[in-house]
């Protein structure tokens, strides 16, 4: 049985943590990113957990950001009253080098 198993990405744990925090920051700042499907599957759970925490705690939102210019009320309005499923997915193409599928994530 596969209880509590995640997709594997061939990175060390500190690198993965920083990578997903950077992706989270980019989504909040730019409202979209492009990434591979395997990274998206892990990012989806990570993003949902952090957004739930952001909804409860405004200070956590500003601790994530490197720039303080991002509007908190706009972010909350964009999310709405959803409990999960904050990211929209569009499949774009396949990368030329290794033919991995690239997807486009929107807030």
TrEMBL record:
GO CC terms: ribosome
InterPro entries per UniProt: Ribosomal_bL17, Ribosomal_bL17_sf
GO molecular function, one term: structural constituent of ribosome
Alphabetical keyword list: Ribonucleoprotein, Ribosomal protein
Record keyword Ribosomal protein present: yes
Keyword Transmembrane helix: no
Gene3D superfamilies named in the record: Ribosomal protein L17
GO biological process, one term: translation
Pfam families linked: Ribosomal_L17
Protein name: 50S ribosomal protein L17
């Amino acid at each position: 049985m596969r209880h509590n198993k995640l997709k594997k990405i061939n990175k060390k744990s500190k690198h993965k943590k920083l990578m997903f925090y950077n992706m989270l920051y980019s989504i909040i700042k730019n409202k979209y990113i492009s990434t591979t499907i395997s990274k998206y599957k892990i990012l989806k759970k990570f993003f949902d957990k952090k957004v739930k925490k952001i909804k409860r705690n405004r200070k956590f939102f500003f601790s994530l950001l490197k720039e303080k210019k991002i509007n908190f009320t706009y972010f909350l309005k964009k999310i709405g009253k959803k409990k999960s499923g904050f990211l929209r997915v569009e499949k774009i193409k396949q990368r030329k080098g290794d033919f991995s599928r690239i997807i486009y994530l929107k807030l």
